[in-house]
Design a protein that fits this description.
The complex is a heterotrimer. Chain A has helices at about 45-50, 75-80, 95-105, 115-120, 120-140, 155-170, 185-200, 215-220, 235-240, 245-250, 255-260; strands at about 5-15, 20-30, 35, 60-65, 65-70, 80-85, 175-180, 205-210, 220-225, 230-235. Chain A is α/β, with parallel strands linked by helices. Chain A has a six-stranded mixed beta sheet, with helices on both faces. In chain A, strands 2-1-4-5 form a four-stranded antiparallel beta sheet, covered by helices on one side. Chain B has a two-stranded antiparallel ribbon. Chain B has a two-stranded antiparallel sheet with strand order 3-4. In chain B, strand 3 (about 180) and strand 4 form a beta hairpin. Chain B is globular and about 60 Å long. Chain C has one domain (about 5-290): ABC transporter involved in vitamin B12 uptake, BtuC (Orthogonal Bundle), CATH 1.10.3470. In chain C, strands 1-2 form a two-stranded antiparallel ribbon. Chain C is globular, with a radius of gyration of 19 Å. The chains are: A alpha/beta, B mainly alpha, C mainly alpha. Chains B and C meet through helix 6, helix 11 and helix 13 of B and helix 4, helix 9 and helix 11 of C.
């Protein structure tokens, strides 16, 4: 396993009697874009929540950079270098766009409760740095003009981008994107795919849950297919497209039989 | 930017001086006594505003912390250790200068802690108790946290009422003045009225400055983000539990400082300071001030407590607070100062001044 | 009196107090299940009920006075919902807490001005304050049996009401899923009003039946509410038999404390239990732990 960034070993989680994720093995190599696909209710978001620490797995292990992170709190995991976006964007609505991204600098800065209260001089420098870094990210995302706008006033597509920038502000090694293209129009989706590729080129590994197949097939280096909580297939996009099990899930038994014959 | 942050503090300080001058020259200096006491109560409110408005946690037990501050300093400053003067611990404490002998108003000699030592003990004790209470309670969601803190407040009240050391229903009186240094002392006698008016305001505005710094710092931003969306805040590496807990402890310490100063000022403290109704009052004031509005909370804390101390509301005192509370919550949940008509005025004014 | 009869005495007084706590706990659970609100004014309903009954009992026979008091308190409960709660159903938890607290204080202060601070009591339902019944060598007031009886009747009645009447089922449906209930033609808003009335009515009944034993004063609501809330949480906010069990348990615990320590600590017992339960088993004693969602994370 070369440069294995994230290693998911035999992870399971159930809700009541429903197995949301069952005995999933997978790994993410550094520098790649990996997509997680599957029908509704396949356990994709649950898998994300298990990685990000929002949920704890009932069994199995998650390793990040060779360190076990199973059962860690989500803020600890964020500090270690895993950032995420949400299926429905979760911006801080009453804060400005700039402030949203500034909050993202939290795990990489250190002014504490007392230092902030006493307004110690060294925190001024840190505060300036937080501001300039956040502003630079906004410029990169072409969001600088709306920096002082309240986040709740933004369009849907803009909110997605701000959430993106906010996640990147934490300087993650791994970025989890939960359906980034949901609700975006075709142009915005195209811009998004370019954006994801650019992020990958900066050295941030991406794990993407996505329904938009053309986006998945265009940008990802590897695809993981889940159905009813279980891994069905894993491999490069071309191979996945021809995998009979995957076709069966998406198109039904007949098509699978056709493609095999 | 930072200068603009201090402008309201300067304005408030100027107002404080103006009010003092006005009251002294018009021959109504006794109003200052009530303003001073209101300022002590407002200290609780400022801390609670940080907790409710910024960390989003309701506490119905802050009168408990006020009472802890008051009672602990009262006990340490009045309990007579003279019979045990030869004990090794006491002589050690005496040689450290933590104990002193003084004469109460009847001329009896009393060996007790010096007010400064008591004050430091209050700070530590309030912080430790808040930490112990907060560790489990902060994890609870809205209603349950409110109920749990209400329970804490009731326990403090019961302890105060039931323990002879705390004077039971009578409370503790004969608490000596508190020499704070620079020749100043917290003392309720008429001769010290102006001096104490300024001491109270200096401490209150100091707390305001600290709170404003906090709100605008990295931690303040994190606290606000917790309030907006806790899950997203988590995903950005913010340890929400820790910051909420820290805010809880800070607000408890502010409340205890208010309680301790008030006790030295009045020379006494009674169980009425520990009632649930007092806790509710503080919550009312924060709500009226606009939850996440430090200046609103401070202003309302001083004004409403002043009116209440003046007896403006008569026997309807508690009822008035409750009605204000309900009306505000129904019609102006963002506080009196952000009510639509007033807010319109404010924005008009600020726009004018900017142009 | 020998040792064993004294124990019986404590147990019986504990049980009768516990029954009242269970009834208050029901009041919390009914409103919570219908609205998700913890009604901090729950204790005040008891006192309003008892005070009204005391006043009415001077002009009409006792049973009529109690019935009227229950009715009036229920109407008051409905009114509280109509005037205050309905306007802020979608408000934040913080706002709802603050509003119900405000209501509780207004009610308390109103009682202070209507009935002053004097301690009052309803007459004993049967016999007088000196009449006793001997059970296993212990002497207890017949009123304690009344308390237990009324509690049993209300629990049974509530269970039957929720299980077999159309209205009870509609209320359960609303608690389960408001939207779905509305689609079935249930008027969810009236169900909320009704739950406030039911909760206030039960509270008033509890207030009346306990009044001869403990007497009634305008500011006794808050401590009773804390105990009722403790019971409601212990019972998992819903399950009615669990609430009864929790109520009786708390009553016994208090009785035991009074027998061993100074009675000043009696009040502290329920608060300590509450804090412990909130910390360690927020979903209640008699429920599976994964149901509870009280914790923030």
């Amino acid at each position: 396993m070369n440069n294995c960034l994230l290693d998911i070993r035999d992870v399971s989680r159930s809700f009541g009697g429903v197995h949301a994720v069952r005995a999933v093995y997978s790994s993410v190599t550094e520098g790649m874009i990996k997509a997680v696909i599957g029908p509704n209710g396949a356990g994709k978001t649950t898998l994300f929540n298990l990685i990000a620490g929002t949920l704890a797995p009932h069994s199995g292990q998650v390793h990040f950079r060779g360190r076990p992170i199973t059962g860690c709190k989500s803020h600890t995991i964020a500090g270690l270098g895993i950032a995420r976006t949400f299926q429905t964007t979760k911006l801080f609505g009453h804060m400005t766009v700039l402030e949203n991204v500034m909050v993202g600098r939290h795990p990489r800065t250190r002014a504490g409760f007392l230092a902030g209260m006493l307004n110690l001089p060294w925190t001024w420098r840190e505060e300036r740095e937080i501001r300039s870094r956040a502003m630079a990210l906004l410029e990169e995302f072409d969001l600088a003009v709306i920096a002082e706008e309240r986040a709740c006033n933004l369009s849907f597509g803009q909110q997605r981008m701000v959430e993106f920038a906010r996640a990147l502000a934490t300087e993650p090694a791994l970025l989890l994107l939960d359906e980034p293209a949901a609700g975006l129009n075709i142009y915005e989706t195209k811009a998004l795919s370019e954006r994801i590729l650019k992020i990958r080129d900066r050295g941030v590994t991406c794990l993407v849950v996505e329904h938009d197949m053309s986006l998945v097939m265009n940008i990802s280096d590897e695809v993981l297919v889940l159905d009813q909580g279980q891994k069905i297939a894993e491999g490069p996009p071309r191979a996945i497209q021809r995998n009979p099990d995957v076709i069966r899930i998406y198109l039904g038994e007949d098509h699978a039989a056709n493609s095999e014959s | 930017m930072p200068l603009r942050r201090y402008a309201p503090v300067m304005c408030a300080a100027a107002m404080v001086v103006l009010i003092q001058v006005a009251l002294s020259t018009t021959g109504n200096p006794y109003y200052m006594t009530q303003i001073t006491m209101s300022a002590f109560y407002a200290m609780v409110v400022v801390g609670l505003c940080l907790l409710m408005g910024y960390a989003g946690q309701a506490s119905l037990g802050h009168a408990g912390f006020f009472a802890i501050g008051g009672y602990v300093s009262a006990v340490l400053c009045t309990v007579n250790l003279l019979p045990y003067r030869d004990a090794a611990v006491l002589s050690a404490l005496r040689s450290l200068g933590l104990l002193h002998i003084w004469k109460d108003i009847y001329g009896a000699e009393i060996l007790s802690f010096v007010p400064w030592a008591a004050f430091v003990a209050v700070l530590i004790l309030a912080a430790v108790i808040a930490l112990l209470i907060g560790l489990p309670v902060i994890r609870l969601k809205g209603h349950y946290m409110a109920m749990a803190t209400l329970g804490f407040g009731l326990i403090v009240y019961r302890i105060v009422i039931g323990t002879p050391l705390f004077g039971q229903a009578d409370g503790i009186s004969n608490v000596p003045p508190f020499p704070v240094g620079f020749g100043l002392q917290i003392n309720g006698r008429a001769a010290f009225r102006v001096e104490n008016y300024y001491i109270a305001w200096a401490v209150l505005l100091g707390m305001m400055v600290l709170s404003i710094h906090l709100v605008h710092s990295r931690i303040g931003r994190a606290l606000r983000s917790i309030h907006e969306n806790e899950e997203a805040a988590h995903s950005l590496g913010i340890d929400t539990y820790r910051y909420k807990l820290a805010t809880f402890v800070l607000s408890a310490v502010f409340a205890a400082i208010g309680g301790a100063m008030m006790t030295h000022y009045n020379g006494s403290i009674g169980p009425s300071e520990a009632t649930v109704m007092k806790s509710v009052r503080y919550v009312v004031i924060v709500a009226v001030g606009g939850m996440a509005n430090l200046w609103g909370a401070m202003l309302m804390g001083v004004v409403l407590n002043f009116l209440s101390l003046r007896g403006v509301f008569g026997t309807f005192d508690d009822a008035v607070f409750a009605i204000i509370l309900i009306v505000i919550m129904l019609y102006a949940p963002d506080g009196l100062l952000r009510m639509p008509p007033i807010h319109k005025w404010k924005t008009l004014l600020t726009r004018r001044s900017r142009e | 009196m020998d040792q064993s009869s004294q124990i019986v005495q404590y147990i019986l007084s504990g049980l009768s107090n516990g029954a009242i706590y269970a009834l208050i706990g029901f009041g919390f659970a009914i409103i919570y299940n219908a609205t998700g609100i913890i009604n901090f004014a729950q204790g005040e309903f008891l006192i309003v009920g008892a005070m009204t009954a005391v006043s009415l009992a001077r002009v009409v026979p006792l049973p009529v006075a109690i019935a009227l008091a229950v009715l009036i308190t229920a109407l008051l409960g409905g009114l509280v919902e109509l005037i205050f709660i309905r306007r802020v159903r979608e408000a934040s938890v913080l706002r709802l807490i603050v509003i119900t607290i405000g209501i509780s204080i207004v009610m308390r202060e109103a009682m202070l001005h209507i009935w002053d601070e004097k301690v009052r009591a309803l007459p004993f339902f049967t016999g007088t304050d000196v009449s006793t019944i001997s059970i296993l060598g212990a002497h207890i007031s017949p009123q304690a049996l009344w308390v237990l009886g009324v509690c049993a009747v209300i629990v049974t009645g509530l269970t039957l009401f929720y299980r077999y009447t159309l209205m009870g089922r509609a209320m359960r449906a609303c608690a389960d899923d408001r939207m779905a209930a509305r689609l079935c033609g249930i008027n969810a808003r009236w169900m909320v009003t009704l739950s406030f009335m039911l909760s206030a009515g039960i509270g008033a009944m509890a207030g009346c039946v306990i009044s001869p034993l403990t007497q009634t004063q305008y500011d006794m609501g808050a401590p009773l509410a804390i105990k009722g809330f403790t019971v409601a949480i212990l019972g998992g906010l819903g399950n009615s038999f669990a609430a009864v069990a929790a109520g009786l348990l708390l009553g016994l615990l208090e009785a035991f404390t009074v027998s061993q320590f100074a009675s000043a600590y009696k009040e502290a017992v329920s608060i300590v239990v509450l804090l412990l339960i909130l910390v360690f088993r927020p979903s209640g004693l008699f429920t599976r732990s994964d149901i509870g969602n009280l914790r923030a994370h």
